[in-house]
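Hello again, I could really use a second opinion on something today. I've been staring at a protein lately and its backbone has me curious. Can you walk me through what the tokens say about the fold? Take your time with it, there's no hurry, and the full record follows here:
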Amino acid sequence: MNMSIGSMPHGKRNLITDVPGVLVGHATVDAGDCHTGVTVILPPRRNPFTDKLTAAACVFNGFGKTQGLVQVEELGTLETPIALTNTLNVGKVHDALVGYMIDLCRQDGLSLTSVNPVVCECNDSRLSDIVRRPVGEKEVLSAIRSASADFAQGAVGAGRGTTCYGMKGGIGSASRLMEIDGKTFTIGVLVQSNYGASGDFRAACLPPDLAECDQGSIILIVATDLPLSARQLKRVLRRTSVGMARLGSYIGHGSGEIAVGFTTAPLTDAGDSFRTQTVLREEKMNIPFRAVGECAEEAILQSMWHAGADTALDGAPIPCLRDFIKDQHAKEESK
């Protein structure tokens, strides 16, 4: 979709993978009444446990079942890939990431005794028989193996069974370029969209029969190569709420809005006991603030644009944004 969200330029792919080294992979399950999956975001470190990245998390509304955020909040680091799935599959995906990291560390001659996988979720029970929990080790490893810089958006992976503003939701992504002191930095957002009331959606005038409550969840993953501290990164994560608000969300009681982010900018060893970190000056923070707000808004729209119409388990039709906009244009042209 050719969108004009904001004023900042986007990266080559307009995806979170425009941040150098970041990869994304999906495994989609479509079997019987199960329409779900897993999406994995891989940081650019071969072994993130031994080469941790600066990270942060921001919980806007905590109606969610994520794992791993407590340690990210405490230590400000990320040490595994980030996985997205559905609510009841969180434990199985977490276990699969533990096994993956044990094997990875074993290859490096390290005996792993503790690890902090980050797993986030949305509830896709409207379109998928969630109690069957079909996502496990096989699907997680498949998503990791398939990870690349170019990846599908829409109803794939963890977005296969999600809905957004009363329409089909899914996985969406966007990126922005930031020029600072003659250098170009990139920030990218990937969303798993499953939230919002249709009557609040500001990007289109929806008919009243689609009205519903603002509930569900949205997970927003932010990656950047801009040097930021964990504290600064959390400030950036808070601004993803700008994108949600621009599209109409008020972050309802029954919805889990959670952002997790990391920077690939390296730390530098300074002796046996110290490390140094280059960080952006506070007076320059408006640049990533604007960029991440634009990315979040566009990523949500991309998640809907790339997803086709579907049918809920109870037989109710789930319309899609693309068809709705085409119908609106046809009505306008026929006047």
